[in-house]
């Protein structure tokens, strides 16, 4: 039974994730032509494809007898939008933060999540340039490890007043609605970071406390959130929609539409309630402006 082997499967996946990090770091240091191309408005590089090939090849080779489905950013058909039929599905982002990778900010990550019927059971986020891997199994907490593979439990801050919270937001994926919302929530400070995995790691490392996603004409995808969600929630944080609903994955449409919030936890409901109210006001104002 797969559910009885999650720790074992997770250990194998961590090895694969570290190997993929080596693939990306080689490209990051110029050992190969990135061959940057446009993919539906977003860049894709030879590094994305090489890491994707490595992850899929290694998981399938090391777990050959398991009935897994594989949903990866680089192979998913965004036109057909078909859910994988398997109960257990790997959701993979071989390079989250491709723009940051190209611009060499260091803020890129690898996301691996094993989901069961749409909910994550294993979550792995590797940030190659910090040489840290965040690992969670459902019900077993979250750890962080370095190259020595020594694991340490990790938890977000306990800040419980909005005025004390530090927001982490996207450096490039923001729109007018998001900027207006961020202006009206009285956070203590703001930081701007690439890659969702990198953003969530700052919450785990207690450098920030809140991350907000607000879709516009496009939306983040399953592979952006599945692994980061689990490493945060297993550490004690929360990750929901603005209504408090849990996220669902592998539902056919991989877009995660609407308002989504990740936080350290203590004032999560207060925050998403406020954000939801502000969004109604902002949308009414923008409609009046034409």
Q: Care to give the gist of this entry?
A:
This protein is α+β, with helices and mostly antiparallel strands and 290 residues long.
Write up what this structure looks like:
Helix 1 runs antiparallel to helix 2. This protein is of the alpha+beta class and 290 residues long. The model has no long low-confidence stretch (mean pLDDT 95). It folds into two domains: 152 residues, Fructose-1,6-Bisphosphatase, Chain A, domain 1; 128 residues, D-Maltodextrin-Binding Protein, domain 2 (3-Layer(aba) Sandwich). 41% of the residues are buried.
Keywords:
7-stranded mixed sheet; Fructose-1,6-Bisphosphatase, Chain A, domain 1; 5-stranded mixed sheet; globular; 2 domains; alpha+beta; about 290 residues; D-Maltodextrin-Binding Protein, domain 2; 7 helices
């Amino acid at each position: 039974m797969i559910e009885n082997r999650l720790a074992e499967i997770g250990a194998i996946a961590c090895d694969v994730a570290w190997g993929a990090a080596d693939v990306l770091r080689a490209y990051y240091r110029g050992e190969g032509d990135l061959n940057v191309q446009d993919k539906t408005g977003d860049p894709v590089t030879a590094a994305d494809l090489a890491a994707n090939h490595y992850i899929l090849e290694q998981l399938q080779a090391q777990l050959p007898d398991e009935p897994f489905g594989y949903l990866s950013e680089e192979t998913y058909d965004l036109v057909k939008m078909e859910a994988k039929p398997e109960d257990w599905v790997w959701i993979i982002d071989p390079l989250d933060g491709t723009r940051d990778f190209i611009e060499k900010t260091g803020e890129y990550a690898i996301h691996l999540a094993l989901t069961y019927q749409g909910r994550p059971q294993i979550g792995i986020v590797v940030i190659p340039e910090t040489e840290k891997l965040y690992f969670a199994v459902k019900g077993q907490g979250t750890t962080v490890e370095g190259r020595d593979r020594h694991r340490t439990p990790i938890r977000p801050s306990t800040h419980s007043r909005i005025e004390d919270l530090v927001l982490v937001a996207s450096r490039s994926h923001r729109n007018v609605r998001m900027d207006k919302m961020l202006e009206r929530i009285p956070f203590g400070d703001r930081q701007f970071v690439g890659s969702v995995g990198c953003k969530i790691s700052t919450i785990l490392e207690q450098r920030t406390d809140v991350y907000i996603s607000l879709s516009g004409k496009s939306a983040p995808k399953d592979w952006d959130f599945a692994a980061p969600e689990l490493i945060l929630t297993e550490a004690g944080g929360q990750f929901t929609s603005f209504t408090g609903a849990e996220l669902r994955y592998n539902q056919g449409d991989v877009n995660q539409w609407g308002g989504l919030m990740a936080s350290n936890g203590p004032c999560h409901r207060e925050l998403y309630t406020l954000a939801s109210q502000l969004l109604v006001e902002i949308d009414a104002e923008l409609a009046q402006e034409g």
